[in-house]
Design brief:
Elements lengths: L5 H38 L6 H16 L1 H6 L15 H35 L13 H26 L5 H11 L8
Length: about 180
């Protein structure tokens, strides 16, 4: 087996998180295009009610696919009142405990998302709204997003266990060093 350079693993993981972010952004862009199309379609008296189904699925896809990217970049809401009041050593262990609990919880969520989606595929569940497609297709964004997020949280936990500063803390500190406090509003 070829030896993998640690930098290659880091680039691959960061690329995976960025890919999730790009897919989430494309979902949001598609929502924009569909909503404009629906507005024009209503004025032209076209049947556009099916767009609501697709937009709902894209909203869910955007949320789940973008979670790992948002997490790694410090864009998740975090309550840090306790963390800011303890010593750096205690903070590190609290971060590790939080990341370990989050890893287990998200892995559990991902397991059930995959199981639920598999059952939808196995039973050939069809969406009951205007767009009759197999429901497992839009559900896959939940499975993929959950999988990427659990990888990101475990990656973060391993990094903190090895003594690294959490990426979400480092990214926020970088923004603050540039004078960007927009996330704090």
């Amino acid at each position: 087996m070829p030896e993998t350079h640690p930098g290659a693993v880091r680039r691959s993981l960061d690329g995976l998180y960025a890919l999730g972010g790009v897919l989430a952004a494309l979902c949001v862009l598609t929502i924009l295009v569909l909503m404009i199309g629906a507005s024009v379609g209503r004025m032209a008296n076209w049947r556009v009610s099916w767009i609501n189904d697709v937009v709902a699925w894209l909203c869910a896809a955007a949320a789940f696919l973008g979670m790992a990217y948002s997490f790694r970049n410090g864009d998740f809401v975090r309550v840090t009142l306790l963390l800011e009041s303890v010593s750096p050593a205690v903070r590190r262990w609290l971060e590790i405990a939080s990341l370990a609990v989050a890893s287990v919880a998200i892995a559990y969520l991902g397991w059930w998302a995959a199981r639920f989606t598999y059952d939808s595929w196995r039973f050939n569940d069809i969406a009951g709204n205007m767009v009759a497609i197999p429901i497992w297709i839009p559900q896959m964004s939940f499975v993929v997003g959950s999988a990427i997020l659990v990888i990101a949280v475990v990656d973060e936990c391993v990094g903190v266990l090895r003594g690294a500063k959490p990426s979400y803390v480092a990214r926020v500190e970088e923004r603050h060093a540039r004078g960007d406090f927009s996330e704090e509003l």
